[in-house]
Please model this.
Amino acid sequence: MSNLRVIAGSAKGRRLQLVPGSGTRPIADRVKESLFNILGADVENATVLDLFAGTGGIGIEALSRGATRAFFVESDRLAINTLQANLHHTGFTRQAQVVRSDVFIYLRNQPAANFDYIHIAPPQYKELWIKTLQALDERPTWLKDEGVIVVQLHPREFTTVPLGHFELVDERRYGSTLLAFYEKRLTE
Model:
């Protein structure tokens, strides 16, 4: 994938840098466009938590479409440098908070704020998406009551995850990418 860009909104058309090496897998533009079509206008004024942020493509797209704040959690130094360069290039440094941390250490904390959207796109085939969902399930206040968790993974990785506070409400497949959507259970 040689190009990554902001698809819509105030930074539409801006190219984003890719993280050097093969450790990250940025979301393809057509999958990102489909995701934001599903989320729709609700992204405006939303707060977004982008876990395993990589290039920051999802959080930056949300900011471009009117989200008020995005938090990016990433542990890799090269990814952090790329993410900060992308935020600077798109003009979103003031609406963003970049946290260099292991996602699981970060999620052990009590959330300072709760989020409308949480995006999870960890390295593939390590079951990190399952561990991340479980960590969020232990502290469900990370997500607002009407919020949505979006997991980006390879379809072969998907399995049912028993959760106490969240439930799978939708899944969409785009080639080698599956988007799984989780919301809080209504019984709470």
